[in-house]
Amino acid sequence: MYTGNKLIELLEKQQETRYKTNLFRKGTFRIQWRAKVGSYPHPDGETMISAGEPCGNWETYKQQPRNDKFINKKGKEETIKKLEQYLNELPKLPINGYIPGSSIRGLVRAWVKKDPDKRSRMNELLGYQDDEKITPGKIEFLDAYPDKPTRLTIDIINPQQEFQVLHNQEKQSNPCPLYTLGDGDNKIKVTIAIRGIPNKATEEDVKQVWEWVEQALHFYGVGSRTASGYGMIKSENKPKPIRPKNEISKTFNFTLYSQGCYGANQKNRDDVQLRPSHWRGWLRSWVLRFLLGVMSRKNAEKILGDLLGNIDENSGKSYKGCVRLELVKNQLWGEVSEDEPDFYTWKGQLKITAPKDILSKIILPIIRFACSVGGVGRGWRRPLHIFSFNNGNKAARGCYLKLSHKVPDKNTGEKKIRLYQLSPNKPELWSKTYDQWLKAIKSYCGDKITIDTTINQNLEAEVFSPNTCAIYAVPGPDQNPIDESYQTWQNIRDNEETRGEGMTLIYQSKYKKKTEVGGDAGNGNASCSWVSIRRVNIPNKIAQTQCQEIVCLFMGGQLTKIDHTDNQNNLRSHFLKDLSNIPDSTLLFGVSPDNNN
């Protein structure tokens, strides 16, 4: 028998009958996605704490070969398993999850600390520790259980920036398994409650703390990794939000047409998932590219941690950043196309929250460039197109991202939806937007870090600056390959009709599947492409095509001048030359081929 919320019900009745005062508050909330309220990297080898129902036990993996063992930082022996083993043997843990009261209490403290004027009141109500002296508070936080028994399900953390940005092939995808509350599909109804300690707390004290609970949950979510979209939770009462001082949010509407995005079980092609972590990884990678364009790698990774958080490799401690992300689903979510080859459509909202100057002057310009030259998730470096295998079978490859926002009309003041991307027909805006960002990052770093746009010209990595990459607009395809009204392909006669001049160039034999340019996503030792291509549905009037392609080439330390004696190790320079020679192409940003080529 599941007794998850019985304790809350009994304590509420006890409070009513014994003390005759309203020192009890509870509310119904819904976890929107997954909540990381406990960590189970190796569930057969470590003590189950925090996110599991504190009763019952089980036995798994009793016999393990010694070479699967390791000693963790606490001196305890654990068993290492690969993600595939967990998927096959233990996709769900045989315990019911819950949210510890201590997790909710810590969340509330973190939210209240944002306002220095409230700290004294917080210490009075929630208690505090001064060196070795502990002063207890007046309010108790109860454990929060789902209304129905909810198993902990397998999930993954899949760091990509070493592979995607620094092109470290040894760091390619190696998902780390963990278990979370929720399956990523269904919302979870939970009851959260607090109670005042009799003869210490007043009804006003309880009311005050409950307001903090509602606000903290609304803005931060619950558990860890909330800045990555985990633990997002909504109250059925919908309290009016009180935003922390100096914080602002930007909400984007998005539509993503994609070859498919996946979670833990990537072999199950029917289980498509667009996850908050896809967006978080997208943003982290682009911020790192920009920072590498103006400072050393060490400083870039430090600033990246300040903005988006980090995990120390030596201590294992996590550090919170100041930028948070929230993903909101719409009704059309992961819907497969009506015809083949299959592609998938997601529509929703992306909400970014950060301190005002950081969001408006540092993060948003990077997002504008990112959505102008590529997509998000699997296949983000290519526009959605049709690809044929050697056996003749066809598949959808790449993606098409539309990111929009509401902008007041200059004449009427009425808010209208506009695409957030930079236009290929206004080349001057690309350099202007970058220069504004450069000024902002100089101001943010102050005298602590020297800003230099030439610092990493020789670094073999994806470095975004006017001296280390090139962005061109090229014609084609003749029409948008997909009918966005019905999520179907247009009347496509052959694969080439889904490609523009940029895709035609990257598919030439001297660039296709070449590590130095086109990359190789095949089995085995995969490598990332140094080129991202995005289709935009803006006509090229000179070439008379309905669409254009935005091609972004990262030089990765190679010179813009072609070395004709070394065709294999200078391919990016060749690609840059060929790109610039495409008829009716336009340089939007960055380097151009050396005039002596």
TrEMBL record:
Q: Where is the CRISPR type III-associated protein domain?
A: 98-232
GO annotation terms (biological process) = defense response to virus
For this UniProt record, the keywords arranged alphabetically read as follows:
Antiviral defense
Q: For this UniProt entry, which segments traverse the membrane?
A: none
Record bears the keyword Repressor:
no
Name the InterPro entries for this protein: CRISPR-assoc_prot_TM1791, RAMP_III_fam
Write down the PANTHER family for this protein, in alphabetical order. CRISPR SYSTEM CMR SUBUNIT CMR6
Q: What protein am I looking at?
A: CRISPR type III-associated protein domain-containing protein
Originating species: Crocosphaera subtropica (strain ATCC 51142 / BH68) (Cyanothece sp. (strain ATCC 51142))
Species lineage: Bacteria, Bacillati, Cyanobacteriota, Cyanophyceae, Oscillatoriophycideae
